[in-house]
Amino acid sequence: MNHWSLGFDIGGTKIYGALFHWDKSIPTCVHEITLPTEREKGYPHFLSKMAEIITMLCDQGNILPHDLRKIALALPGSIDPESKIMLSGNTPMLVGKNIHEDLKSHLNFSPSLAFDCENDGNCFALAEVHHGVGLKFQSETGIHPEKQHALGIVLGTGVGGGIILHGKIYNGHRGGAMEVGHTVLVPGGVPCYCGRNGCAEQYLSGLALEREYFELTGVKKRALEILTSHDDPAALQVKKDYFHYFLNFVANLVNFFDPHYIVLGGSLSKHKEFYSFFDKNLGDHCFLPNTQIPIYPFHLNHTAGALGSLLRKI
After folding, report:
1. What are the structural domains, with CATH classification, of the chain?
2. Alpha helices of the chain — where are they, by DSSP H?
3. Mean pLDDT for all residues in the chain
4. d(Cα 291, Cα 254) in Å, to the nearest integer?
5. Where does the pLDDT of residue 1 fall: very low under 50, low under 70, confident under 90, or very high at 90 and above?
6. In sequence order, which ranges of 66-205 are alpha helices (DSSP H)?
7. 290 touches 179 (CB < 8 A)
8. Is 130 exposed, middle or buried (0-12, 13-18, 19+ CB in 10 A)?
9. Is the dihedral of CA 65, 70, 76, 79 positive or negative?
10. For residue 256, what are the contacts with CB-CB under 8 A and spacing of at least 6?
């Protein structure tokens, strides 16, 4: 059945919205908009901006908000599976807010409109399994996405993740599963905004790379520049530390979940050395002998979070 839906990937710095047309089970992104989140201006401003984006996308598709079948949001935090409310995350203005009900007061939606919110790491992983890397894995192994077990790890300004079991998101009891950025990697280490010390996010995010480099040199340098440097001694030391932490982090996840494969997303995942490094070293750090788990770069680019938010059946 043909229908229209809107998917959003909402982060601390930007809002990405996309209008999808569905022909049976095949989605096509027909229009997209990216605007700054401007979270410092507060929640009412965010709602107004969301209403503006929805109206703009509908106008571009020559449809009305009333024509939408579904609106779904990938949010930067843990989402309660029942209420769809964000319980915790790095964008405090969204915590505890019923975005669906609040948006209703801005636009005329159909009474039958489906609305969903999901963690952005989960959305990324779900989209990659069903419309990205999972299809590549199926072509290589014959294992259908609905039977795949996969881990998604997002490396950007923070560290997020999602786990897909038998082709479906595993949320946990309260929606807090796979908050891997807040597992302790270095006991007693760098303080994290979550209240703990030594969280993985404080060692594996882009901001963590930049912080360590600045502490060594007093110079500011972008994370990808540090990772791709070949002649800067400080950058090489930071990169060595980073790969040490990341190898232990991934090996722990493999020992926890024993997935078919891992897919990396976020800006740092573009660094090609990740994949050769893990092909060479990961197996030696895992519990099961002869562990050979493929690690893929993302296939869907910037649409994965928005698309994944729409894929979950509610």
Report:
1. 3-122 (3.30.420.40), 142-298 (3.30.420.40)
2. 43-61, 99-104, 120-131, 133-141, 201-204, 206-217, 223-228, 233-257, 273-281, 304-311
3. 92
4. 9
5. low
6. 99-104, 120-131, 133-141, 201-204
7. no
8. buried
9. positive
10. none
